[in-house]
Design brief:
Belongs to the gamma-glutamyltransferase family. The chain has 602 residues and is of the alpha+beta class. It has a seven-stranded antiparallel beta sheet with strand order 1-20-19-15-14-11-10. Strand 3 and strand 4 form a beta hairpin. The N terminus is likely disordered. The structure holds 6-diazenyl-5-OXO-L-norleucine.
């Protein structure tokens, strides 16, 4: 990665970084204490904005923008801080998908930095000795689930091509915070505690079995242990060393040398189930530039990530099917939510059957988005719930698929617009909470468990191979849906996306409908209560984390039941972020009130 513009004055950079280390912990606590009953207001800006799921990461990104950096510079700063302060959700040991809109020429590029299966992997990877699928927790907390990480290569590719600040500058906020310390968030502490409770005892641990992760997140020993309390000042000098190394050597400092050896050793010596990653697997990792998946929606163009993510196709299908309906003017209107749930059913039936890594199995992307095909699918939507939807037969269909599972907390979304007209929409993940639970010795980052996004069963009930089966060098299917919307003139309009496992698709589609159909501002669009259907029960968000005056989930569920829906009222922890570009070019940003994020801009 090269600095392509002038180096900012050193004194100014040092002053800003010092301010970051001192001021941000206080800022973080202030945000955590905000009034949960009030709908937060959207942030506004005229030049540039970054929205992430943690105030320290948003501020690190915003700092890069203030220094004259681009969205690429801001992304590296935000991602490296997220890996430190929100390590349960994303980091250096994970993967990501990013959409990049180039301000210079208006081009849209999508970058696939998904984790990749080692070359030794086989379709039977997640089967036990009697060919039964492993328990999810057993596979999750193991070396088998670790895919070759993509985030370091994505940071390098993005910064090389579009960055303007020196590498030392973009890695500096994370390095400084790792050395100075930052307050452990309540969210991280709660998740540590939740996982500790799943162990048989402090001595007999599957979760936090790794001594480095145990020492970092937990206090106590084998006789008594508990999560470090929220507010504990955490330092991570090993992570600071890693930041320094990446700043000096770029991604090569990760995929070869001591970091690569430490990753391979950690994977292959896992105390639960050892994996099979090699140094060659790491050396072979590549970010893949793929064609965006775009659909027209009510005069705009909505673009997302293609396979191996199912996000772009499924969000696109839902919107195209909904376009034929009048959704009314109430974002919580019961008929609009019924229609939205039905579109979700149909999209999930297709997603589950057809979408996987298109470099390994044929995925009929054009057929799945074909207007005639989607018109026929939309015609299946009536005034009552259709019940379980069967997959359709889109033009060009060939493959089969399976397997849906909800995930919590292992993912984060970053939205950025800079003063140069560039936009980045990136969903970044370690899969489940704290990835596979192993912190790489000496370098302070967690490994992912992304390979559990593959189907554990290599064949379906009829014995046919499942599209999303494990194969060597393949990337597991994802639901991540980083999205960028353009208006009728092709100008940048909306940047959005969310974590939430397979619920990501519904969260993202719903936020888009809230903004584009109901005219909600960016904050309201991400705050509005969720309703969605993944081709099972219709899920209605319980009150608690959602922030919406007068919302009554039981009444909404009853109204949907009257239309034949089986409903489930449940917490739905999305982590949406959104930036909307107004007609005057002003930016309006919103961060999901269900997580700790903020929009920072000016
Ligand atoms: O790629 C995927 O679809 C999943 N690994 C994402 C997991 C996730 O969103 C977890 N949580 N919030």
């Amino acid at each position: 990665m090269q600095a392509t513009l002038r180096t900012p004055r050193r004194a100014a950079v040092l002053a800003l970084l010092a301010a970051l280390a001192v001021a941000l912990p206080a800022f973080a606590q202030g945000v955590a204490a905000r009034d949960a009953a009030r709908l937060p207001e959207a942030a506004t800006a005229t030049r540039e904005m970054v929205v992430t799921a943690h105030p320290l990461a948003s501020e690190a990104g915003a700092l890069m923008l203030r220094l004259g950096g681009t969205a690429a510079d801001a992304m590296v700063a935000a991602q490296t801080v997220l890996g430190l302060v929100e390590p349960q959700s994303s980091g250096i040991g994970g993967g990501a998908f990013a959409l990049w809109r180039d301000g210079a020429n208006g081009a849209l590029v999508t970058l696939d930095a998904r984790e990749t299966a080692p070359m030794a992997a086989t379709p039977e990877r997640f089967l036990d000795a009697v060919a039964a699928p492993l328990e999810f927790a057993d596979a999750w907390q193991s070396g088998l689930s670790v895919g070759v990480p993509g985030v370091p290569a994505l940071m390098q590719a993005t910064h090389d091509r579009w960055g303007r600040l020196p590498r030392a500058t973009v890695f500096a906020p994370a390095r400084r915070l790792a050395l100075a310390g930052f307050p452990l968030s309540g969210r991280t502490a709660d998740q540590v505690e939740g996982l500790l409770k799943r162990n048989a005892s402090c001595a007999d641990r599957l979760f936090f079995r790794d001594p480095a992760a145990f020492a970092h997140f937990v206090e106590g020993d084998a006789t008594a242990c508990a999560a470090k309390p929220a507010g504990t000042i955490l330092r991570n000098p090993a992570y600071a060393r890693l930041m320094r190394r990446l700043a000096r050597r770029g991604a090569a400092g990760f995929y070869a040398g001591p970091v690569a050896r430490a990753v391979v050793e950690a994977v292959r010596s896992d105390p639960n189930r050892p994996g099979d990653m090699t140094l060659d697997d790491l050396a072979a990792y590549r970010v893949i530039a793929r064609a965006p998946v775009c659909v027209g929606y009510r005069g705009r163009t909505v673009c997302g990530m293609g396979p191996p993510s199912s996000g772009g196709v499924a969000v696109g299908q839902m919107l195209r099917m909904l376009e034929g309906f009048d959704l009314g003017d109430d974002p919580l209107g019961e008929r609009a939510l019924h229609l939205f749930a039905e579109a979700g059913r149909l999209a999930f039936a297709d997603r589950n059957r057809y979408v996987a890594d298109a470099d390994f199995v044929p995925v009929p992307v054009a057929g799945l988005l074909d207007p005639g095909y989607l018109a026929a699918r939309a015609a299946l939507i009536g005034e009552r719930d259709m019940g379980a939807a069967a997959p359709g037969d889109p033009p060009g269909a060939a493959a089969a698929g399976a397997h849906v599972r909800a995930k919590d907390s292992g993912t984060s979304h970053v939205s950025i617009i800079d003063r140069f007209g560039n936009a980045l929409s990136m969903t970044t993940t370690v899969e489940s909470s704290f990835g596979n639970g192993v912190m790489v010795p000496g370098f302070g980052f967690l490994l992912n468990n992304e390979l559990t996004d593959f189907s554990f069963a290599p064949v379906d009930e009829s014995g046919d191979p499942v599209a999303n089966r494990v194969e060597p060098g393949k990337r597991p299917r994802s639901s991540m849906s980083p999205t960028i919307v353009f208006d009728a003139e092709g100008a940048l309009s909306v940047v959005t996306g969310s974590p939430g496992g397979s619920r990501i698709i519904g969260y993202t589609a719903r936020a888009l409908v809230n903004a584009l159909d109901f005219g909600l501002d960016a904050q309201a669009a991400v705050s509005a209560p969720h309703v969605q259907n993944r081709n099972g029960a219709t899920e209605v968000e319980a009150t608690g984390e959602t922030v919406w005056p007068g919302y009554d989930p039981e009444a909404l569920a009853a109204a949907l039941k009257a239309r034949g829906h089986e409903t489930r009222v449940a917490p739905m922890t999305s982590g949406l972020s959104m930036i909307v570009v107004g007609p005057d070019g002003r930016l309006t940003g919103g961060a999901d009130p269900r997580r700790d994020g903020v929009a920072a801009g000016r």
